[in-house]
Amino acid sequence: MSEPITLRGITWDHPRGYAPLLASAEAYGRDHPVRITWDKRSLKDFGDADLRELAAAYDLLVIDHPHAGVAAASGALMPFDEFIAADQLAAFAQDSLGPSFASYRFGGHTWALPVDAACQVAVTRPDLLPAEALPHTWEEVSALAKQLRANGQFVGMALCPTDAMCSFLTLCAQNGARFADDASALASPARIEHSLRQLRTLAGVCHPDCLSCNPIAVFEAMSKGAPIAYAPLLFGYTNYARPGYRPHRLRFAAIPGASRALLGGAGLAVSSHCQHPSVAAAYAAFVCGSEFQKSGYVTAGGQPASLAAWENPQADEIAGGFFTQTRTTIQQASVRPRAAYWPQFQEWLGECIHRFLTEAESPETTAAVILKAHHACALERHR
């Protein structure tokens, strides 16, 4: 008997990111002569690490959708349309939750299949804040924060550079300040300034540790008993809605304002350096297919991207109602630019926004710096 084909994959370091992939490798390996191993990288590296370097080292990559343009420009990934029939890709598109599938298409090709769907959502500790007390506007969030502080409790946020940038982009989307893929359209300075003011106000009323937190840190604190009753903008993690996962079970809800929450999630891609691309693509189709997504993927702690999984009552029960609580929000989510310049620009933008929140720079000055840098980056990549 010949040795099985071995594929190496890289995902991100959280049970939601790797546990369902380990389960999928075991399930797929039972029926196919393929051995799949998975390594992990940090949440920050998931968003910011160089796609080309990862593709040189791994066969399978779990990626963020803004890297689709880098994939198209660099040739680091294999387009799925070369290995999967058009009708099968159409079925993935039909089964996509919100813009998940479309977010991995760029330049006429599909660079990843959606394996995990997420967006920014609100979260609460139901024992500290009942559902009827949830805020629906940003003004109500500030008022709630003041009420909670009087009782020794807090509103939480994730405001490390990466997540400060993500919350800023959600506010921009709500305010009609769109960052385009190219330099032909600039967002309104006044709307950028307004979004910055909103974010600074939120930072000023939330828990003092939030400027160093990512979503996982906030979820861990809330679910383990920290006096954080509510957080308005965090990328949702189904794990924390599940019974028994942590001492305090969390409940999720729509964000305040006019929706347009920033899309997160993850796509499963095949490296152009992979020696067995058709095998890797077939495995990816299995993991991202609705049958495994609504069964083994959810059971192993995953957050699927399949609409069929999100609409499945048994899957929703396993996930503690998370899918019902957040499905409408993700169906209306906003997508970040995917041009090749964006991943590097968004890393810079995170540092810029974080500096704005920690120093005394005016919204007008920061908005001007952001727009100038965005125009220069977009223009440079299109020359």
Automatic annotation (TrEMBL):
Localization, UniProt: Periplasm
GO cellular component: periplasmic space
Gene3D superfamilies documented for this protein: Periplasmic binding protein-like II
Organism domain of life: Bacteria
Principal localisation: periplasm
InterPro entries from the UniProt entry: Bact_solute-bd_prot1, SBP
Family to which the UniProt record says this protein belongs: Belongs to the bacterial solute-binding protein 1 family.
PANTHER family: ARABINOSE-BINDING PROTEIN-RELATED (PTHR43649), DIACETYLCHITOBIOSE BINDING PROTEIN DASA (PTHR43649:SF12)
Official protein name in the record: Extracellular solute-binding protein
Organism lineage: Bacteria, Pseudomonadati, Verrucomicrobiota, Opitutia, Puniceicoccales
